[in-house]
Amino acid sequence: SDDDIVAYLEEYLADLVADDKFSGAVLLARDGKPIFAQAHGLASKRWNVPNKIDTKFNLGSMNKMFTGVAVAQLVEQGKLSFDDLVGKYLPDCPNREIAENVTIHHLLTHTSGMQDYWEELFDAHWWEIKTVDQLAALIYDDSLLCEPGAEFHYSNSGPVVLGQIIEKVSGQDYYEYIREHICEPAGMINTDCYEVDTPTPNLAIGYTRESYTEEEPRPDHWRNNLFMHASKGGPAGGGYSTVEDLLRFDVALHSGKLLSKEFADIVTTGKVQMGGPEMMYGYLFGDETADGIRVVGHNGGAPGINAELNMYVDLGYTVAVMSNYDMAASTVAHKIDELLRQR
Known about the structure:
This protein is of the alpha+beta class. The chain has two domains: 2-63 and 189-342, 3-Layer(aba) Sandwich (Beta-lactamase); 66-175, DD-peptidase/beta-lactamase superfamily (Beta-lactamase). It has twelve helices and 15 strands. The chain has helices at residues 2-18, 63-76, 86-89, 96-101, 104-108, 118-123, 132-136, 157-170, 174-186, 243-253, 261-268, 328-342, and strands at residues 24-30, 33-40, 42-44, 49-50, 57-60, 192-193, 207-208, 223-224, 239-241, 272-273, 279-281, 286-290, 293-302, 305-312, 317-323. The strands form four sheets. An eight-stranded antiparallel beta sheet has the order 2-1-15-14-13-12-11-10, with helices on both faces. Strand 3 and strand 4 form a beta hairpin. Helix 2 packs across helix 9.
């Protein structure tokens, strides 16, 4: 029963926290109403500030869902088509291979063949990169890994191109578009894009035990992840949110506030295989069915950043876990998944 799951979770989290293996917030909802919500650990070790249920955490790659919904909104309004080529909206795109062969569908499903800009970001002056166009400048020099549509290659570059297209078609800055057309209608008052030098209130600091370089041994203590993430979030990741806002996003997505039911289904339904027949990828949403139980959503991870939103479409549960530790949220989300499947 739900009561059993809640009781187990309380004990399970207490054990993880005692071993310093979890810091963050956990929310489990049924039919849009929370049945379990807890926060543990510290948002700031320096100032000894505890995490609370409304603490903001970095989303990592989970912004991709917002980008996917934004594109679908523009398609639903007749301003775009999923089959359109990049060059139709970005005629000045410096990479003609991308402009003339890659479609919006390819970008949304990680089948464009594009490489990933993440390494280039840190070779560049990453602290100066604050706009979608500046991010895009990192990606257009690379040739495609394969013919568009041929293979699934998870890439942060595709969503950046989509961010440029959203700006071009809507006439709005990407960040403004997401605020106005996703966060506001969904009531996501604590969600936006992270910016390294903006003192965002109530935002947890990320802590990592990852190494800066492959040569460096793994540190045996937590350290701030300041030098290990982008200076500003964008269409591929790096926003911030709360577990409560992620629930609001789920409710808004499935109640017609962001997209019609038809387009919400289009976005969340798997289009390409990600790893076996059960693991599919839709339009910047994961779509997994195992043992007849379907889960859609996305996760995000980087040093000192881990978050997961799992929407159990048929069972009616929502699981939102956010952490300012390495991979700690996924550990908890997987445990909740086990519990929901056993009930």
